[in-house]
Amino acid sequence: MGHSHITIHNKAFRPYLSAAQLEEAVTALAARLSADYAGRLPLFVVVLTGGFMFAADLLKRFTGPCEIVFIRVASYEGTGSTGEVQEILGLREDVQNRHLIVVEDIVDTGTTMQHLLPTLLAKGPASVEIATLFFKPASLKHELRLRYVALEIPNDFVVGYGLDYDGLGRNLPDVYVAV
Fold this sequence. Notes:
By secondary structure, the protein is an alpha/beta fold.
C-alpha cells in the first residue's frame, strides 16, 4: 500500500489500515467464532451494504457449518413520538431456536443494533451476538454488548473495505481515514 492520499467527493483521506492488517484482524475473529460455535449451526445475518466485504472474508475463514442470510435495515419516520422506525428487509428464514450472529461493518452510535436486536429477539432465536469489523467506543450512545469486535477504532471517519462515503469507496481493499 502506497502512502498516497485519495480524494472522494472532494474530501481527502489518508491510508489508515492495510488489507494485510484487516485480514489479520478478521482471521483472528473468525478463529474465535469458529471455536465458540463449534458443534452448532449458526446463522450469519449480514447487514448490507457495508458488511459485504467483511462478511465474505470472515465466512471464508469460519471453519464450521453455517448458514448465511443478507438483510437490509430500512429507516423511515414513524408516526407520533416513535421517531425513526427500522424495518428488516430480507429475513425470510425461520430463526426460532437458531444461533444468530449479526455481521456489521461498523458499530458507532449503536442505534441500528438498538433497533435490530429486539426485532430479532422477538423471533425466538436461541442466541443473538454481534460480530462487527469496527467498533467506535467513543461514539456509542446505547448500552450494547459486543462480544465479537475485529478492531476498535477512534471516532474518525473511515472509508474502504465495504464502508462508503456517500456511496463511493466501498471497493477499496484498504481502509482510509479522513484527513
